[in-house]
Write a structure and sequence with these properties.
Blueprint (H helix, E strand, L loop, with lengths): L1 H35 L7 E5 L7 H5 L25 H8 L19 E3 L23 H20 L11 H4 L1 E5 L2 H9 L6 H21 L4 E5 L33 H24 L4 E5 L1 H10 L15 E4 L2 E4 L5 E3 L2 E3 L20 H11 L5 E2 L12
Helix pairs in contact: 3-10, 6-7, 6-8, 7-8, 9-10
């Protein structure tokens, strides 16, 4: 009898262990399933410069003209490329429509968000007009425009007229994307030797952080933040396009022909930005701040141009840049030193990384976007579809 009871007790013990183990297994599976689910962002709100401007400056000032937009849209649509920008590919990856520029009132749709990015914009305020190559839309103004957009759409919804805009509850569920800082670094480079670059970079990052905190106070919870790219690799920065018969001193250029000191300043900004986002994660535990290493993604492409099917990264598809003479894409033909110059686009933009010496082609933007949306260049390493996670 004792043996029978012992056997029964042993069986029950094994049974309960199995039940508990199975329960734990289901819990683990449920957690993994939850973590692998898409965030289902209902909208995107984007802030930035020409790298993600989908029509702000074109609507606010002189409209863009062909050959910009020629490859994909077959017309100029306000983008600094022959086709789509990285933000367009991000929207596509999230199953949303391309973002309309906030300043563009003609034929725009804002149901899935809005784009506040504007070409030439900076994080810090600037004292340059549009005609000097500046922008009246620094990040501070872009954020103010967003607040106005949010406030006015909420009012429209209360009046039963908000069907063309994000729902009030969508603002906290949306993803907030940023691609800005390149023009701040360029401005700092122009003033090198006149001011403390270290202090300037710190101030730029601090002002960036302040705007992120402001957006958090307005309900933003998912932040997808691009660092600045390798500006020393932009063809217009390379000596080959700025002077005749110029041989740089050792250490001025890296193995890809990029200007080292310019990339070093970009890296300094990126390092400080990353450290700042780490601090913000610790302060705002209910928010997700994803740092996207755009510098590394772009530099990887530039380092492997031939392998990835592109011509040399220094080659410019549209415009003329030789010996310090710069005629940008869209300019009329000109005469330089008695030579007739045709300022058109190349025969095959898809073979080029650089569209106009500063911005990337549709093909290059597609290549970069396909790498960053997976989370391969992110900290935390989250794909964009799951960037709302607090991992």
């Amino acid at each position: 009898m004792a043996l029978v009871c012992a056997a029964k007790m042993g069986f029950l013990r094994q049974f309960f262990i199995a039940v508990i183990s199975f329960s734990q297994f289901l819990s683990i599976v449920a957690e993994e399933t939850k973590s692998s689910e898409s965030c289902g962002f209902p909208a995107i709100f984007n802030f930035g410069d020409s790298n993600s401007d989908t029509g702000c400056m074109s609507a606010a000032f002189y409209p863009a003209a062909l050959p910009y937009g020629e490859t994909y849209f077959h017309q100029a649509v306000g983008r600094a490329s022959d086709g789509r920008l990285i933000i367009d590919f991000i929207a596509k990856n999230l199953g949303l429509e391309y973002l309309s520029a906030y300043m563009d009132s003609i034929g725009s749709s804002y149901y899935h968000g809005a784009n506040f990015a504007a070409a030439s914009s900076t994080i810090r305020r600037q004292n340059r007009t549009f005609f000097d190559g500046g922008s009246p839309f620094p990040l501070e103004i872009q954020v103010a425009q967003f607040i106005q957009f949010k406030t006015r759409t909420a009012k429209l919804y209360k009046q039963g007229q908000g069907n063309s805009f994000p729902k009030p509850e969508d603002f906290s569920k949306a993803i907030y994307t940023f691609d800005i800082g390149q023009n701040d670094i360029a401005a700092a480079l122009q003033r090198m030797g006149q001011e403390n670059s270290e202090a300037v970079i710190s101030d730029i990052v601090d002002q960036f952080s302040n705007q992120l905190i402001y957006l958090y106070s307005e309900g933003a919870r998912t932040f997808w933040i691009h660092n600045t790219g390798p500006i020393g690799c932009l063809p217009v920065a390379m000596p080959i396009h700025n002077a005749y018969n110029y041989t740089p001193v050792d250490g001025y250029l890296d193995q890809n022909g990029c200007v080292v000191y310019q990339n070093d300043m970009a890296k300094d900004f990126n390092t400080k930005l990353n450290h700042t986002l780490v601090k913000l994660r610790a302060l705002y535990l209910d928010a997700s701040f994803v740092y996207v290493d755009m510098f590394s993604a772009k530099y990887q492409l530039i380092s492997n141009t031939k392998k990835e099917g592109f011509v040399d990264a220094s080659e410019i598809c549209c415009g003329f840049h030789e010996g310090g003479n710069h005629l940008f894409c869209g300019n009329y033909n000109a005469t330089i030193n008695g030579r007739e110059i045709r300022v058109g686009s190349c025969q095959d933009p898809s073979s080029h990384i650089s569209w106009d010496g500063v911005h990337y082609t549709d093909a290059a933007n597609s290549w970069i976007a396909n790498r960053i949306v997976t989370g391969s260049f992110s900290d935390p390493p989250l794909p964009i579809t799951r960037s709302c996670s607090l991992a």
